[in-house]
């Protein structure tokens, strides 16, 4: 059997896939454009149920790359957080969080910070109960004992007050139960 290395499609290649898919072309025909098997194209299209996702956009409230460059320049010049915030018409707490979140005052790099922010903003996020299987088993056990999601969420916070990995909101539990989001409790 022929084994190929994993391929990552660019955004323009994915756009072409969606365009051809909307035009009614077969998976095999679309895959031939990229010299790949139909299953690689099927994986891209199936991730969103065959419906093209909206293009990713940055929130108007999020810091831009230009603002991050200004933060980086200001830090290098020894400016205070308050003066940087005034220049950007942003809250000092926004600037402070941005710096702490991205390597601190000495290691802050605008391009790296922007890349990390873009990755953190990626939606949909993987459900916490999928990522943390021990937590999922604990929640499932409590549900079998007829505990409500609110009771479980409160109990987890009291039982593990310093361990954020064991904190989950009641909404996450409801979502996993009733919508079966990503099969979290299966």
UniProtKB/TrEMBL annotation:
Residues 60-102 form the Transposase IS30-like HTH domain. Coiled coil: none annotated. Pfam families: HTH_38. One of its GO terms (biological process) is transposition. InterPro entries: IS30-like_HTH, Transposase-Integrase. GO terms for cellular component: cytosol. Transmembrane segments: none annotated. It comes from the Bacteria. GO terms for molecular function: transposase activity. PANTHER family: TRANSPOSASE, TRANSPOSASE INSI FOR INSERTION SEQUENCE ELEMENT IS30A-RELATED. This is Transposase.
